Amino acid sequence: MSELRWDPLKNNWTIITQGRSRRPQDFIQQRSQIEMASCPFCNGNEAKTPPEIYAYRPNGSQPNQPGWQVRVIPNKFPALRIEGELDNQAEGLYDRMNGIGAHEVIIEHPDHERSMADLTAEEISEVLKAYRTRMLDLRNDSRFRYIFVFKNFGVEAAANVPHSHSQLIAVPLIPPVITSELSACRQHFERKERCLICDLLSQERNSKLRVVRDDGNFLVYAPFASSVPFELMVAPLEHSHDFTLQTDQQLLLLADTLRDTLRRLRAVLRDPPYSFILHSAPPMHLRWGRPDYWASLPSDYHWHIEIAPKLTRVAGFEWGSGFQINPTAPEEAADFLRNSDPTVIY
Ligand SMILES: [Zn+2]
Ligand SMILES: [Zn+2]
Ligand SMILES: [Zn+2]
């Protein structure tokens, strides 16, 4: 039996097919390992990248020299450029905006061979602190309406340097996915005076059906209407709209959750390609003519990380209809992950 499921946060439908449910081994694929002769992200190759914007250097080494643990650099081939003024123009029925933004690379570790799942929780927490620092800095630039932090792992064509890294893109408008989440959260809050994501977390926590991990600080669960197999949501149990408000201690707990979750995905799906993206509150710059626009944001929004393994290809129907077809029910995916051994390495 297949069913259509509507997610109140995504404000969208997914088709979950259960007749020929696909299990982990159906998604496991051989991927060729791309080796880089002289990787620009490796320790000692700092001169091959643009000058660093931020680095964590526990031994006090000099900028753009070896000795760092986390390093943030501008993307050499940015999707958006930081220079210039915003220029928003109408062209008949069309709108045009120049590609102002920031595109940065967060190199997570100097060692070429270690993926995020191989890092310790302390090491991952330094990566999360780099996210926090860069988000706070870019937030001061009023041209940027949203700052995305995301990671592509093993995703062909998207991650062309295998050395473990995340990316940050600041954009001059709030993208539809975020607008839809913000408005779903705001509407729920207007009706109930409660945070939608807090409500989702407590329902999932009570039912346990789709929960992968619950350590009392962060909940990891497969969303009810997961649009891809083994999709996961990671959110703090304590309400917070803004990732940058997390303390070092909270980031260490998040790092532990992320590490365990990535290791479970690796154990069940044999090191699958995946993407994750951080959804946090947008910078609350004043909105022209709507001074109270962000008034309820700290109460109604709740930051989270969405993880999506890349196991299926988007084809015509999904592309043209906006409906995803997901061949693994989230209850089954959660079951596989919950019962997996995070210490298994592939
Ligand atoms: Zn490298
Ligand atoms: Zn909340
Ligand atoms: Zn989200």
Short description:
The protein has 346 residues and is an alpha+beta fold. Helices cover 27% and strands 22% of the residues.
Describe this protein's structure.
- This protein has a single domain (3-39, 115-338), classed as HIT-like (HIT family, subunit A, 2-Layer Sandwich).
- The radius of gyration is 20 Å and the shape is globular.
- It has eight helices and 15 strands.
- 27% of the residues lie in helices and 22% in strands.
- With 346 residues, it is of the alpha+beta class.
- α2 (121-139) crosses α5.
- The strands form three sheets. The chain has a ten-stranded antiparallel β-sheet with strand order 3-4-7-9-8-13-14-12-11-10, sandwiched between helices. A three-stranded mixed β-sheet has the order 1-2-15. Strands 5-6 form a two-stranded antiparallel ribbon.
- The chain has helices at residues 24-27, 121-139, 176-192, 196-207, 248-269, 297-300, 316-321, 330-338, and strands spanning 3-7, 12-16, 54-56, 70-74, 88-91, 94-97, 102-107, 146-153, 165-171, 211-214, 218-221, 232-236, 274-279, 304-309, 324-326.
- One zinc ion binds at residues 195, 197-198, 239, 302.
